[in-house]
Amino acid sequence: MGSTFGVAVVGFGWMGRVHTQAYARVPHHFPQLPLRPELIAVADEVPGRAEEAAAQYGFATAARDWREVAADPRVRAVSVAAPNFLHREIGVAMAEAGKHLWIEKPVGLTADDARAVAGAVAKAGVQGTVGFNYRNAPAVSAARELIAAGEIGTVTHLRIRLFSDYAAHPQGALTWRYERERGGSGVLGDLASHGVDLARFLLGEIASLTADTAVFVPERARPTGATAGHARSAGGELGPVENEDYVSCLLRFASGARGVLEACRVSVGEQNNYGFEIHGTEGAVSWDFRRMGELGVSRGTSFQDQPVSTVYVGPGHGEYAAFQPGAANSMGYDDLKVVEAYNFLRSIAESTPYGATLEDAVRSAAALDAMARSAEHGTWVAPAE
Ligand SMILES: NC(=O)c1ccc[n+]([C@@H]2O[C@H](COP(=O)([O-])OP(=O)(O)OC[C@H]3O[C@@H](n4cnc5c(N)ncnc54)[C@H](O)[C@@H]3O)[C@@H](O)[C@H]2O)c1
């Protein structure tokens, strides 16, 4: 059993809870990890929320002000799961306090924010892991390996989709997500950020892109009390939705491959319809998050009428073996966060980054900035380095 290692969680909404559960589960799945997380502190600004979390999960202390977490010498690593507008301030402060950082995507409101957090992490010499969890799916790892091994030939094009209905209900409350100052670029940061990370993880860097955006639900009711997740509000005063519900984007990769990325948060009839289809000169590979353990694969030498088969991931694909002994046993969303916690703690233990880093967050955020600029000016834009 590894030595205890003090961790804290800031922001105890959906992601705060998932990070906490991941810390609790990581030693069960990865007993070889030399660090065993100990839940030291939790902070949330809603009165009573941190205390409730402490009582349920066993954090030693609870606070409303995250600065108490930054000042606590027992805390060695911090999960930042607060809304996007706080990522920069809290992320930089935690790194400056010498805490290793596991921070949720998209890491701030802009690429500038992501760069500030990345810079603080580099300067402090701490490890930084980012919540791009979809790349942790064993099937996504398998797809990456298969592509890198040339099994579908030279990649020609990709389609990547992230469709959700989480904001489709007209009574969905006007929370921080819909404000530019606190939620940033809407579906770009929320969903397209994951799409960009997957695209880069699978196909490499994006050389240029052109995008179109839209707001389909222009007004929502202000919440009448504290919110978490995608709360509803009926009867509250109406206010404007300030950021994007939808983005479509054409991509040109440095490799020469082409791509289409589409993301929408108001797609009625779509629940977590996230996935990709990638084509190459000799084959194809596809994945759907809702059937996380399956990969559609076409490979061979037929070119035309070439069969497509379903590959069930199993031990040997990504971190699957840490969860199930044989192929086709289902894994779930939370398991991807356990893999992320493992990558984070392993990075700290070995002083070497594993999994998605702040450099990946900067690259993703630069692509999102480029999408916003392209949508405004109607031009092709190269994401800033
Ligand atoms: N990786 C993923 O798949 C994924 C999924 C959902 C959300 N996220 C990201 O996680 C972050 C949180 O999203 P969520 O869905 O958990 O939101 P949420 O609204 O459910 O939770 C946010 C929490 O932060 C708290 N908070 C607000 N201001 C605070 C402050 N000053 N100090 C401490 N706590 C504060 C809120 O009270 C709330 O409990 C966002 O950045 C979002 O982009 C990532």
Any idea what the shape is?
A: globular
Give the overall pLDDT as a whole number. Answer: 96
Sheet of most strands = 8 strands, mixed
Q: Class of the largest domain in CATH?
A: Alpha Beta
What does this protein look like?
The protein has 385 residues and is an alpha/beta fold. It has two domains: 3-133, 3-Layer(aba) Sandwich (Rossmann fold), CATH 3.40.50.720; 134-331 and 356-377, 2-Layer Sandwich (Dihydrodipicolinate Reductase, domain 2), CATH 3.30.360. Helices cover 32% and strands 24% of the residues. Helix 4 runs parallel beside helix 5 (111-124). The structure holds nicotinamide-adenine-dinucleotide (NAD).
Describe how the helices and strands are arranged.
Blueprint: E1 3-10, H1 14-29, E2 35-43, H2 49-57, E3 61-63, H3 66-70, E4 77-80, H4 87-96, E5 100-103, H5 111-124, E6 128-130, H6 138-148, E7 155-163, H7 180-183, H8 187-203, E8 206-214, E9 219-221, E10 238-240, E11 246-253, E12 258-264, E13 273-280, E14 284-288, E15 294-298, E16 309-312, H9 333-350, H10 358-377
Parallel strand pairs: 1-2, 1-4, 2-3, 4-5, 5-6, 7-12
Antiparallel strand pairs: 7-13, 8-11, 9-10, 11-12, 13-14, 14-15, 15-16
The structure holds nicotinamide-adenine-dinucleotide.
